[in-house]
Design goal:
- By secondary structure, the protein is an alpha/beta fold.
- 30% of the residues lie in helices and 32% in strands.
- The chain is built from ten helices and 16 strands.
- Strands 1, 2, 3, 4, 5, 6, 7, 8 and 9 form a nine-stranded mixed β-sheet that branches. The protein has a seven-stranded mixed β-sheet with strand order 12-11-10-13-14-16-15, sandwiched between helices.
- A hairpin with a 2-residue loop joins strand 5 and strand 6.
- Helix 6 crosses helix 7 and helix 9 crosses helix 10.
- It is elongated and about 70 Å long.
């Protein structure tokens, strides 16, 4: 079966690696800055580092939406639906169209023909008001088209400003090369999305999650009272914490730091106090990070960690950094190690 997944722009190579790691006998079909298609004999569960995962029905090159419709019809490239007919038969469906990621008007005469092909194969009925299935036809800027099926129609709740989505947190965790004996720290935990993602990612030693905001710490503690955390809550420690004063941690105690420090956008911080914050935080992080440790930071694209490190002569080295997009905002992911 062929599948298509989406993810935040900038993580393509990491996502390729994770899919090939997690799914046996899998082949990558195509990818670009924020989508990946693959063929696998396994039946993938929800992969936590993908924003969406859909069944891929058809794909190829198309100049425009009309060409994409026609390619589907000319090739009769709907055989995947035949293979799923027992599961999908007689369900209400809708076909939605997108150009460069944005909803686009359908082309009526071609749209009706594709609808009829699906009716013939599944005996379902078109219904845009109460669909049980959604089929999405995308034409992207690079002239790639793909036609995908989403069996469960759902609408994601909007994520509050400044909160990272779970799939992005998981990608950051994966970049830290998590180990089963990790002593993990997120000193700017906010809603706790990154520490929770680490807890979900696999075995660890201890997780410390800190923030200066007492309400956020209290909210995190309240979430830990949920029964699903009963077996692990004794290994997860929320703390009221100033990331520039990590006095509660011994030197070289922490093996992994993964965090999303302030960008200055929601904190109303000007450049000078923002860079002062980073200088103090990185100084403390360098002290508490183990010699074999690793740190992954997501920061605004206007923040140069290299400049901070050079100015303060911190014993840290950036081994990789690359641009990503987070909720439409340009950002940088830095991977740092002690020296």
């Amino acid at each position: 079966m062929d599948y298509l997944g989406t993810f935040p722009a900038g993580f393509t190579e990491l996502v390729k690696h994770l899919i090939l790691r997690d799914l046996e006998r899998t082949t990558i079909l195509f990818s670009d800055e924020s989508v990946i298609a693959f063929r696998t004999q396994a039946v993938p569960a929800k992969l936590p580092y993908l924003k969406n995962l859909s069944i891929l029905i058809a794909w190829g090159k198309a100049e425009d939406l009309a060409s994409a419709y026609q390619l589907i019809l000319d090739r009769k490239n709907l055989g995947t639906l035949d293979a799923l007919s027992d599961r999908l038969a007689k369900k209400r469906f809708v076909i939605r169209t997108f150009i460069e990621g944005k909803p686009a008007p359908v082309i009526p005469h071609l749209h009706r023909r594709v609808e009829q092909e699906i009716v013939n194969r599944l005996s379902g009925k078109p219904n845009s008001e109460r669909p049980e299935l959604e089929l999405h036809l995308h034409v992207r800027k690079n002239k790639q088209y793909f036609f995908v099926l989403q069996e469960k129609v759902h609408r994601e709740e909007p994520i509050p400003a400044g909160t990272l989505p779970p799939y992005l947190c998981r990608l950051l965790i994966e970049l830290s090369d998590p180990q089963k004996d990790d002593i993990f720290l997120d000193p700017f935990m906010g809603s706790g999305a990154i520490p929770f993602a680490r807890a979900h990612a696999g075995p660890y030693g201890l997780i410390f999650a800190g923030d200066k905001d007492a309400e956020k710490v209290a909210s995190f503690k309240a979430q830990l009272k949920n029964k699903r955390w009963e077996k692990r809550r004794k290994t997860i420690f929320p703390k009221l914490l100033d990331a520039t004063k990590l006095d509660g941690f011994q030197d070289a105690f922490i093996t992994r730091i993964v965090s999303d420090p302030p960008w200055g956008l929601y904190d109303n911080l000007d450049a000078a106090p923002l860079y002062e914050l980073y200088e103090k935080f990185l100084g403390e992080a360098a002290r508490v990070l183990a010699k074999t440790g690793k740190m992954v930071l997501l920061v605004g694209s206007h923040i140069s960690l290299q400049a901070v490190i050079e100015k303060t002569r911190l014993p840290l080295r950036i081994i990789e950094h690359y641009p990503v997009l987070v909720s439409g905002q340009k950002a940088l992911v830095y991977i740092l190690v002690p020296i």
